[in-house]
Design goal:
6-stranded parallel beta sheet, 7-stranded parallel beta sheet, Rossmann fold, binds magnesium ion, binds adenosine-5'-diphosphate, globular
């Protein structure tokens, strides 16, 4: 079904096709017409299924009539984190390109002044984190009684982060007559209760897990010695051997390790950045932008820092540590294989991790196969010729070069990621309270010269010169890098 069949305005449909989307995702196809009917809505779909456009596109259409008044925003979108709020703003800018809408971002870590000025002029769309929104409200500069549409996005993360009381308060501050849209990956009872209280006769749309991202992720384990040095070496070897790798996120369990692994990768010449909860907003944004722009190839991150971020098109996820909480595993691997693309997740496992691994396997309802050797991570050359937008065909003949086939997407049971898995990540708020890891690590500095991405092999042995058969980062290497042996 094309976007033009959903009832969206011509301006929005043309912005969508200019942006390159060809078909709505299932949650978009089902939610958009109902939002346009001005119904309250509960949309439940896994991370990476395109929930953002499911509300942004119809909101843009509805906003075409009417105009903003000073201090009285017309619509309000609540997001749990600054990064997610910024991503939603990008969506409004991208799909609202044919419209003259004013959009304001109200997030912490940024001065009040500019935000105030914008609100005073009048905004159509206010995108906010709950705490900061209430700060503005309490300062008396913001009126919420003109809100026509209220969106509570990523509700399960709001819950995890302790934002539910703020959400309830904000709901009460907005007009009873508003349209309310609720999006979440899961619907635990606490969230259900809030929807019952604040939504009126909502349509509920739940997208089956089967049709979503989980089916496109190849999952493997890789054995390693347990001490950090051995694990770092295993990681380096994996990254070097991963020929089909466009970019990767490396997850560590602890902030401290994020810093150590990041430093070590940089020392070994990898083009790596780090993302963890202690970084100030400016460095987080810088790092994330650099990673999105493919200026960084590897992003080392903690669970808290990476949760819910829309980092498009990550080809590989490496778990430097097996997560202690099985649900974190599901969140981590959800960073790859998004929106129908295929991805690969490799978890480094030592003898101490048996318990955590079996908890994960129990949660996802299947066992995760081991890679027999590091080299098994190299994909056959055909797989490297991946156009960014094209669906990446998975060839059954992966093992054709004598390598063992990793478990491919097709062999994964569709419901491999149960809803519960998204339900209980550890709260970021709690994580910010001083804990046992007081040290602050140096934020990544993506302004420095692009670093080298050495390989064990010579450039000469890289796949031929046919640009069409080379991933972007390899091409970049060829142009800018002389290989240094470590
Ligand atoms: P969610 O909020 O459900 O986790 P997002 O809205 O962040 O998911 O979308 C995940 C990714 O899918 C983004 O990179 C987004 O650009 C992409 N995406 C969304 N809708 C489509 C579509 N219709 N076609 C292709 N890609 C899409
Ligand atoms: Mg989202």
């Amino acid at each position: 079904m094309p976007f033009s069949d959903l009832g969206l305005s011509d301006k929005v449909v043309s912005a969508v096709s200019a942006a390159g989307y060809t078909e709505p995702t299932p949650i978009q196809a089902q939610a958009i017409p109902r939002v346009l009917e001005k119904r309250d809505l509960i949309g439940i779909a896994q991370t990476g299924t395109g929930k953002t456009a499911a509300f942004v596109l119809p909101m843009l259409t509805l906003l075409e009539t009417g105009r903003a008044r000073a201090r009285m925003p017309r619509t309000l979108i609540l997001e749990p984190t600054r990064e997610l709020a910024a991503q939603v703003e990008e969506n409004f800018n991208k799909y609202g390109t044919n419209q003259r809408l004013s959009v304001a971002l109200i997030i912490g870590g940024v001065s009040f002044g500019d935000q105030d000025a914008k609100i005073t002029r009048g905004v159509d769309v206010l995108i906010a984190t709950p705490g900061r929104l209430l700060d503005h409200f309490e300062r008396g500069k913001l009126l919420l009684n003109g809100i026509e549409i209220l969106v509570i996005d990523e509700a399960d993360r709001m819950l995890d982060m302790g934002f539910m009381p703020d959400i309830e308060r904000i709901c009460k501050l907005t007009p009873f007559t508003r349209q309310t849209l609720f999006f979440s990956a899961t619907m635990p009872p606490e969230i259900r209760r809030v929807t019952e209280q604040f939504l009126s006769d909502p349509v509920q749309i739940e997208v089956a897990k089967a049709a979503t991202t989980a089916t496109t992720i190849t999952q493997n384990l890789m054995r390693s010695g347990g001490d950090p040095e051995a694990k770092r070496e295993t990681l380096r070897k994996l990254i070097r051997a991963a020929e089909g790798m466009k970019n990767a996120i490396v997850f560590c369990n602890r902030k401290r390790d994020v810093a150590v692994v990041h430093k070590s990768l940089v020392k070994h010449g990898f083009n790596a950045g780090a993302l963890h909860g202690d970084m100030d907003q400016a460095s987080r944004t810088r790092t994330l932008d650099a990673f999105r722009a493919n200026e960084l190839t590897v992003l080392v991150a903690s669970d808290v820092a990476a949760r819910g971020l829309d980092i498009p098109d990550v080809s590989h996820v490496f778990n430097f540590d097996v997560p202690h909480h099985a649900d974190d595993y599901v969140h981590r691997i959800g960073r790859t294989g998004r929106a129908g693309r295929s991805g690969w997740s490799i978890t480094i496992v030592s003898s101490q991790d048996a318990k955590s691994v079996s908890a994960i396997e129990k949660l996802i309802g299947r066992s995760i196969p081991y890679l027999e050797a590091i080299e098994a991570i190299a994909a056959p050359p055909e797989e490297r010729a991946v156009d960014d937008r094209a669906e990446r065909p998975r060839r059954e003949g992966r093992g054709e070069r004598g390598r063992r086939s990793p478990q491919t997407a097709e062999s994964a049971p569709p419901a491999s990621v149960p809803a519960r898995a998204e339900a209980a990540p550890r709260p970021e708020r709690v994580a910010r309270v001083p804990r046992t890891e007081p040290e602050r690590t140096k934020p990544a500095d993506p302004t420095h010269e692009r670093q080298r991405m050495p390989r064990d092999r010579d450039q000469a042995s890289l796949p031929g010169d046919d640009a069409g058969h080379m991933p972007a980062f390899l091409l970049r290497m060829k142009r800018t890098v002389t290989v240094k042996k470590n």
